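For consistency, the fold was encoded as tokens, as this record shows:
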Amino acid sequence: MSGKPLRSWFPVSRYATPSPAHQEVFYTVPRAGHLVAGPEHLVARRHFPGHELILCRRGQGWVRIAGRVHPVRPGELVWNNCHHPHEHGAMKSDPWEVYWIRTEGPRLEQMCRILAVTANPVFTGFDHRAAGALYREIFGLMGGNAPEAPALIHARVAQLVALAFCARQRQPGPDVVVPAVLSKPVDRMRLFYFERHTVAGLAQLAGMSPTHFARVFKATFGTSPIDWLRRERISQAKRRLAETTAAIKEVAEQVGYGDRYFFSKDFRQHTGLSPRQFRQREQAEWRGGVAEGERSVKGAGV
């Protein structure tokens, strides 16, 4: 005997019915389980709610997305966007054993685009040991009725998504989170955020036409190159406002704004506060923290 099961069975099978309030703010998991597949295992759907994250623990499987078949090996993760036609199943010669969850939640469609899930639904180089522990925790939380369980499940699913991001970043090929072709323009903006940049100039660094560069950049980061640069400048300005006493005009110039009033308008648009209000709030919190820390030390008799 080969030791392989003749039919699929579930060592763990979990169902849940999340409340509408939780569905608005959390990643929820209405279905999850541990499957030891037999050679007959096959799932084929045209449309189904949610996204399935399938971790292959042993054996081999496959997934068909957008007409392409992708093999799945031990330690790899499959991301199925179930809103679109998909199929997956076990290799008959070596059926897989998997942990899986079906999750629903905010922004999952956008995450799929960022991670190029349609083109490449299989994540290699995945931290399967860390992920396995997260799946088991989700199974345990779904098996209880603790009031904090929805928040804890949300956190575990978010960690799985983060592991997928890390794996895709390391994954060779054209479908990484940040394509290598964008590394030069991104590094240039990150290091020289205070300089003037144009889409045409950044596209030249990437060896692309401006239109193609802008399209690839937005598909990767979810925003335009110039908006990405503006956010980097605002982040740098926040640090200077909080940690120095430099005049606001000086801070604006340091991060690449020649016009103080345009800087203030842009800063408010991104933070909801004027530069002065942001500085006052951050420095007041810092002083309060120091004062609290000093009281704690004095109270300890140091």
Notes: Residues 172-176, 289-302 have pLDDT under 50 and may be disordered. The chain has eleven helices and ten strands. The CA atoms of residues 47 and 83 lie 5 Å apart.
